[in-house]
Amino acid sequence: MAESSEHMKYVDILFSFVETLIPKEMGSLILVDKPSCREKPPRTSGNFTPDIIYKNQEVLIIGEAKTEDDVERRHSLSQYENYYLDAINFEGKSIVILSVPWFMKNTIKNVMRRIKQRYIRKIPVFVITELGGAEEI
Questions:
Q1: β strands within 66-109, DSSP E
Q2: Architecture of domain 5-136
Q3: 63, 14 in Cβ contact below 8 A?
Q4: Per-residue exposure over 32-56, b if at least 16 CB sit within 10 Å of its own CB, e if not
Q5: pLDDT number for residue 38
Q6: What is the C-alpha to C-alpha distance for residues 127 and 112, in angstroms, rounded to an integer?
Q7: What is the structure's pLDDT at 36?
Q8: Distance (Å, whole) CA 56 – CA 21
Q9: H-helix or E-strand containing 107?
Q10: CB of 49 within 8 A of CB of 41?
């Protein structure tokens, strides 16, 4: 599916943030679902393809970018839960990062809080916007 330029803007924000979390020499291991990237992220256990995955034996980072129209869609809600479950089931350190428009930040935080409440094990979930900064939920 062709992604909008708005969606790609949030993917780029996500990518920039993920780069700050990993060693510089490991940046080439970030897999991004963009037309300009040859190697795409693998599908998750729920058969979804996240916008970004960084994975080694010790760390899993799953990133998803959403536009205003996509934040609360049923498909998106299923993606968030699946990515959270995959992160929970990873044996090392795992993080889920969501990149959304600034005015959708509280909406996605509420969605992710509800998802996190369903599980005993908690993993970090961050929300980032075009205004900068990341906030942990």
A1: 93-99
A2: 3-Layer(aba) Sandwich (3.40)
A3: yes
A4: bbeeeeeeebeebeeebebbbbbbe
A5: 78
A6: 10
A7: 76
A8: 13
A9: helix 105-117
A10: yes
Question: Tokens at residue 73, please?
Answer: 């869609």
Please say if the pLDDT value at position 2 is more than 80. no
For residue 96, give the nearest of 40, 136, 130, 41 by alpha carbon: 136
Distances (CA, A) of 115 to 45, 128, 137: 17, 18, 11
Give dist(CA 98, CA 13) in Å, integer. 10
Is residue 121 over pLDDT 60?
yes
Instruction: For residues 41 and 100, give the distance between their C-alpha atoms in angstroms, rounded to a whole number.
Output: 19
The Cβ-side half-sphere exposure at 118, using a 13 Å CA radius, reads: 10
Which residue type occupies 69? D
**What distance in Å separates the CA atoms of residue 68 and residue 30, rounded to the nearest whole number?**
25
> pLDDT tens digits, residue range 3-23?
789 999 999 999 999 999 998
